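Hi everyone,

Forwarding the result from last night's run.
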Amino acid sequence: MKRIEELSNYIAPYSVIADIGCDHGYLIKIAFDKGLIKKAYAVDNKTCPLENAKKNLSEYRDIIYLLSSGLTDIGIDTEVVAIAGMGGNLIVKILEDGFDKLKNVNRIIIEANRNTEIVREFAVNNNLKIVSEKIIEEDSMFYEIIVLEKGKMELNPKEIKYGPLLLKNKDEMFIKKWTNQLNIYINKKTNKLDEEIKEIKDVLNYED
């Protein structure tokens, strides 16, 4: 729940959200409980998760439930889109397939559990800029939150891989995540991983 709680911190100042792949509806619930939103689109392409969301959100008004794929059916009043708990490839496909639906959207909140570099590449190529990035740890897993808004940016390969703001700040969670990854690579060391190990050590200013 820590991960979903953190996602909710990026909704304001907007008040109409579409949660793509809403699952149990917890993000929408937290957002209503915190007084952050006045309306929500709960979207899932599977019946069971959407029914779970309806049960969990039964006491709230102004929620539209959509058994739908991606952004296809969200309303033009949507201000924030949240896509969380998926891999970067699937997130980018959702954004590509429904890109015309994003023209009135002010912010996209993404939490990719892998392949975040693909999300950053998509942003660079589609006039989206990263306004916030954060790594959180939950149940011994690391998750990256990327917040996008309209605008241009250029990223070098290292920024695409590690995140421009994460790389700049190198906070405690950044160090923890990449130290953990470094140790994994060292323990399974093959010649193919030599460059990866060298790069992470350089990013972390690691001394043997």
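The CA atoms of residues 133 and 146 lie 5 Å apart.

Cheers,
N.
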